[in-house]
Amino acid sequence: MEYFVDENSIVRKIWSKSETILFIFAGSAAEFALNKAVDWLYFTGKLPADPIGRLFSTVTYARQIVFFENEKALAAIDKIRSIHGEVEKNRKANIPAWAYRDVLFMLIHYSISSFELLERKLTADEKQEVYAVFYRLGTRMELTNLPSDYAAWLPVREEHLLADLEKSKYSIDLFKQYKKHLGIFRYYILKESQKLVAPKRVSELLHFGKFSILTAILPFYKLAGKLKVSWIIKKIILPRKYILQIKNLDVVPSR
User: Does residue 1 lie within any of the structural domains?
Assistant: First the structure.
């Protein structure tokens, strides 16, 4: 059986643990808020109304692409493109091509940075493998001007960070929504998590500073994971209504 992502791919390993996925989307949540095209996320009103629910919706599609057989994965990608096409039709405007690339670039960056934070440094070949998977995803979505490989992508990623990010009224409001839906304590954990994986440009715009309190806590969390007791910590710091959904992130989706 042919899969969109090879069964032995490092991408599957990255996307098979809830801890890594949560960091991927913590970082993406920060960068999303700064994107100059973030107004598109406000057009339907769904993101500010339920940012955590939208997170799990996005996770579902991403994991289908990573773990499903090729035809089902391609169907999931086509569904994503169709959903965006409907939004464009309703707004009578096109989402900028660079905004699509930015989202793809976020998945690449945070997949790598989150895994390296929690597990180990990736080799050059593994980083290229991550890039190749998302390059094929982008190609299926008919994105243009994608760099040919990981090495060529790095300077383009930096260019996008400088050109496409700004702190706007939408950025401020979106973080208010994060705080409203998570509560003060969990919102604090979110921001501290974002500090650990966000690129320099994101940290500068959000005035993160260089230190995260989670730096001191992370080694103990990793140890808890090895001792199979990390879920005790998760139950304390994660919203109760989403515990089951988060726990399911540790299970390979049904193919």
Answer: no
Residue 20: inside a domain = yes
Please state at what angle helix 97-118 crosses helix 124-140, rounded to 10 degrees: 150
Q: What residue numbers bound the domain in which 213 lies?
A: 10-246
Q: Which of 49-58, 115-124, 137-146, 221-230 has the lowest mean pLDDT?
A: 221-230
- pLDDT value, residue 105: 97
200-207's contacts with Cβ under 8 Å and 24+ in sequence apart are 201/158, 201/161, 201/162, 201/165, 202/27, 202/30, 202/31, 202/34, 202/161, 202/165, 205/34, 205/165, 205/166, 205/167, 205/171, 206/30, 206/34, 206/167
Residue 5 lies in a domain: no
**Residue 48: inside a domain, yes or no?**
yes
In angstroms, what CA-CA distances link 224 with 19, 26, 54, 89, 187?
Answer: 12, 21, 29, 48, 22
The mean pLDDT of 157-174, rounded to a whole number, is 96
Confidence label for 109 from pLDDT (cuts 50, 70 and 90):
very high
The pTM assigned to this predicted structure is 0.91
Residue 157: both structure tokens together: 């990623």
Q: Over 57-100, what HEC string results? A: HHHHHHHHHHHCEHHHHHHHHHHHHHHHHHHHHHHCCCCCHHHH
**How many domains does the chain divide into?**
1
